[in-house]
Amino acid sequence: LGVVEKIGELEHKVARASQRELLKRDLFLIDDTKTAITLTLWGNEAENFKQHGHPIIAVKGVRISDFGGGVSLSTVGDGQIHVDPDIPEAHKLRGWFEKQDALEIGQNLSTFSGDSSSSSNLYKNLVPVALADPNRKTEAVGDNAEYFNVSGSVMYISRENCMYPACPSPDCNKKIADLNTGLYRCEKCNKDFPSFKWRLLLSVHTAEKLLNCDVDRLVNLREQDVDSYDAVFDNVLLKSFIFRLRAKQEIYNVSTKIKFHF
């Protein structure tokens, strides 16, 4: 749910694969957290969007993309868009928007300039959690990991690259290389194999529990039923969970940072 702060012009694009002409229009949305995001309309929806001013937009079933490092939305398939829905949340958002400073909101949107990838500037890393001693410095963590619980909602899961082909050995999870000879090479084991196993980038236990779907079924859905594959991820979005996290100081390129792990 968001307010349309800016409506982009109707653009004509040519699909690389089919060379077919496509119609596209970007809507720049903002919500009461002052988070901005691009919603891209395609085809008839782009051409027929005749709204003016700052309508409230509610979307469902749209595709979430992280191309170029930024997060954006786009209409595909059965995605639904509702303009000025008569629901309490929309009325509350309208009231919030009308009280805002137009200049301040414009500054939030200025990073877009028509390029959805720049929206990554609006997404911040998780701030290091306050430890038992609020005055304790990050450097004091040393090699000791801190464990804590976080209540949160899943806002986004990258589904395009969430799995990788791994070595089939029980004690090895190294990514294998396709030799294009019917064999797959694991450099760690220094062996060639006739097959491989799929692994999720999250630990298998965590990912399968979160998605409520095992990796073998997920692979089959991706190859045979894309809509059902997307639904597995969509069903997790905006749901709340209690996460057990580990915070540990790590050194990368001479820079010391706190990293968070499940």
From TrEMBL:
Keyword Zinc-finger in annotation: yes
InterPro entries tied to this protein: Euk_RPA1_DBD_C, NA-bd_OB-fold, Rep_factor-A_C, REPA_OB_2
Pfam family, one: REPA_OB_2
Molecular-function GO terms, alphabetical: DNA binding; zinc ion binding
GO biological process, one term: DNA replication
Similarity comment: family membership: Belongs to the replication factor A protein 1 family.
This protein's name: Replication factor-A domain protein
Organism taxonomic ancestry: Eukaryota, Metazoa, Ecdysozoa, Nematoda, Enoplea
